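Issue: copy button drops trailing tokens. Both records pasted manually instead:
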Amino acid sequence: MTGGLKVYYVPWRPFLMQNTLPTFYGTLPIIRTILIREKISLVHGHQAFSTLCHEALMHARTMGYKVVFTDHSLYGFADVGSIHMNKVLQFTLADVTQAICVSHTSKENTVLRSGLPPEKVFVIPNAVDTAMFKPSPERPGGDEIVIVVISRLVYRKGADLLVEVIPEVCRLHPNAFLIGLAGQRVTHA
């Protein structure tokens, strides 16, 4: 690909939301090959529910690589799914080099869920720097309402809320209504 970007295809069939079944050691040969072939020095994982992320971090740690995990999830502590995922995070993130969260609330949540020491978790805000970006002083004319949503089309990203709010907005404001949606992301190794 252009700009030196390489994409490896891992031939595992996804079973839910582009995630593969956990294999623990099934991905070791291909991940090991990629890490060595590409002379990787740091492995970054993202997405608490990505089995490939967890396995890549685990294999990289075993091979002595530095690993960083980014989390932006605010999962709970009481339901079965959250309890299970918190145990997976504790196992996978047991000795990560560092973790990154997108807010201070997310950091607190990640520290509680994973058992990571707070000094290993850093916050890089996932927001617009309002000092750099200002809305245009010129407002669009008329009564037209334009709403643009850039999001993945999954429940956790608010697609269900969007489906509920569109009819309400259209009933209250029958003027033009535009939605821009980004599609599903594709997970690559």
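Record 2 (pasted manually too):
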Amino acid sequence: MTIEYATRYRTTSHIPAEPGRPYFIRKGEGDRAHLFGDLVTVYAGGEQTENTFNFFTCEGPKGDIIPAHVHPDTYEVFYVTAGAVRLFVEDTEGEQQERLLGEGDFGFVPKNCPHAYRMERHHSRVVGVAAGPGGTFERFFENLGAPTERLGLPTEPVVPPAERFERVGHQYDVRFLPEHRWHTE
């Protein structure tokens, strides 16, 4: 059984809000949100780590590229546990790279580096960790997308209105780059 806690981010949370308290969560029972065609599940965030890092999974079907964005104050890692994910990244000098990451592969994106990704196979899953001086951004997913109690992918894609991208992104250290083009595709 999962203990539910109310937080300032959602009416109920499946992860305890108190830092310094050990806890356990069964597979998929963290705080879930649908965004685009994906399911994001947060297992640890700022509330548990005093805003030092977060730990989440993102799983989804083969699909479109997630929009290019940058985290001015946050480092992010991508560790693929199922399927395949193509990671696009640009360093601070403008050099672009892309890599197809399969199960067990790892990608690191420093702060201030534009990046995007695309699920390349159905049932792909990425473990994400983000940390930096600006805190954590795990509540971005439910504030831009839609919190859900459902296990599994959304039945219809959750596409937020355009005006919400900038407002929610600014709040969670995510700056979208709508004009950004990848030359590696």
